[in-house]
Amino acid sequence: MIFTYVQFLIVFLGIPLLLFGLLAWHDARRGRTLPASLHSWPATGVVAAHVVVAVLYTTLWDNYLVATGVWWYDAELIAGIVLGWVPLEEYIFFVVQTVTTSLWLLWLARRLTPVSSPATGAPGRATRIRRIAVATVAALWLTSVALLAAAWRPATYLALILAWALPPVLFQLAFGGDILWRHRNLVAWSLVPATLYLSLADSLAISGGIWTIDPDQSTGLFLGVLPLEEFVFFLLTNTLVVFGVILVLAQESQDRVPPSLRTWLRRLAPGRPSRSVING
Length: 280
Hints:
The protein has 280 residues and is mainly α. The chain has nine helices and six strands; from the N terminus they run ααβββααααβββααα.
């Protein structure tokens, strides 16, 4: 069965979005809220902010990929509205993926507790966790930059994904790698199912010809019919959303933000979080 891009969005992203929205509404009706450790900002605003960042950060990069032929779409399977080099459906994908992954995370967060608390960590352990995580990801990022500099064509798509996605991951880990480690159950249960589901959906879209990855600019490694690069893309984009939402919501994060910035942010979103369809 061949889907258009719009049909693909409705079936594979619209239905999960509706489902998680209903689950959030059900939790709100029952009075189920986020734990105190993740109650520093209204979740609705946090998700909205991540949508804005996702669209802004992804737009130029995705347009570059299409403009340089790293991937392309079937003109017969899109609505015909193209902004830059990218169809409108792609921008909708940015938004819906961010919201759906966030709703899934928040549903889990209302049911999971941190593995440990700040008080249980040995002195200096938090700093070591952040340094190890940053060093590991930094080495991977430098490797991707080296591959781009070497202009090794089969590594082009993979290197572009890593070079684009890893800098904000580095910032997140440097800021709160230890916080994320304490919430590692939430990170894992949010990240793994979302990545596997979107990878499966993506493989169906590729099989249906909605979009095509240039074989000359990819490694040729596949997970079934899914190019390795596409799996890495969904893993990293979901990582950005999961890490970001947890860190912004975490109470611990507040003490790490400069007081002047914290005051300015509070003016944008005054008061404590209130109940909403998203945060229950």
